[in-house]
Give the backbone structure.
Amino acid sequence: MATVRIPPVLRQQTGGQPEVEADGSNVGEVLRALTAAHPDTEAQLFGEDGDLNRYVNVYLNDEDVRVLDGLETSVSDGDTVVILPAMAGG
Amino acid sequence: MAPTEIKQQVEEIEPFEAQQEIEGGDVVLIDTREPHEYQEAHLENGKLVPPGLLGDEIATAAPNKSARTILYCRSGNRSYKAAEQLQALGYEDVASMAGGILAWQEQGLPVVSTSGMTAEQRDRYSRHTLLPEVGVDGQLKLLNAKVLLLGAGGLGAPTALYLAAAGIGTLGLLDDDVVDASNLQRQVIHNTERIGMPKTESARIFIEALNPDVNVVEHNLRLDSGNIIELIEDYDVIVDGADNFPTRYLLNDASVRLRKPIVSASILSFDGQISTFVPFEGPCYRCLYPTPPPAELAPSCSANGVLGVMAGTMGTLQANEVIKLVLGVGEPLIGRLLLYEALGTRFTELKVRRDPECPICGENAPEIADEDLGKFPDYDAFCAG
């Protein structure tokens, strides 16, 4: 079980929860478990082609999955997956 | 120490010998006088360790016991004694400068004096100059620094307060907005009486009252690709507290071209992000965020709300980064993104890497034309809302 950190812009879609527990052996599966539990997050995370939207950064613990194996990056119990969109507020 | 033990003689060197070694580099230079003497004049890069604090502070000032360590004081007595103490502590390569700073100055060698600072400044910045990491040299760097704040709002207001208090010599303020009552819950540089006034002017009034040393430059306008190069080229550090994506990408592209460091933060509701982008030394904003999000994922503080004090936390973190960049001390947030969640009072640090494919700072990135700064292939489609 991994912990998924939900950014403020997606919390409405998770009932306000800042963290959600999700199962999966890799990052893609964990995110799919999240979208299954909270379907409103899907359109914002994944494009119609099923790939992660380019404007969404995803980290496994403190490392960007783009420099790991992307959605195929293995996830272990206790890992944290951080979803991070850019914010522009000032 | 046992009386039978033979005291090791301290090596004494003449000021000109010390100067040659210092110029050669790899020398730790320790000033063993009192703070008020140090403040008046000292050798460049001399680290102050007063005799009474030697035992406590030497490990910080001179962490490497095998490094060449030269001590000096006023006339050479206190430094000789301090050198004996250091040898007893296990320092292997210690020398005391004979005749001290008096002999040094008699030979016409240069010192850093506070002549660049008035008596009022010595008093005002004394809590800075007492810090070995700042000192008089560092305070003079701050007084000579030029910093541009992009936005005099939620982030810019608290950043400006601390940069002004720190004595940043030139503070540029860029904002085309006027003070609104709804700003005052977080934009603490403005006040009720100044509602309706341009933010740059309101901020200038506050800063000039706080610290007359600061030269405030008002840029009461909006950045665009036509004016950005001219606006930012005279500044040493840019602080990004902009409230929209087009400005953030525009600033990134121009600052990479001019090789200007950016301290970038953003805020929304209870959450903040901050990183420091130093072109070609670390990643740029586009390495971190190659594509801006669509409008529905990019809500503004005016639409979603923002906790005022959280803006203050992020703004003061920005000021801290700026001061470190100017002083050249510590570890700026280069290649690191710091997230702050005010509700959980939690900080998270993420790694940010340079993207070799980055269209702006990547290995094969082309030089882009002025009118293309800040452009993104399909940016208009993304930002139509």
Observations:
- Chain B has a mean pLDDT of 91.
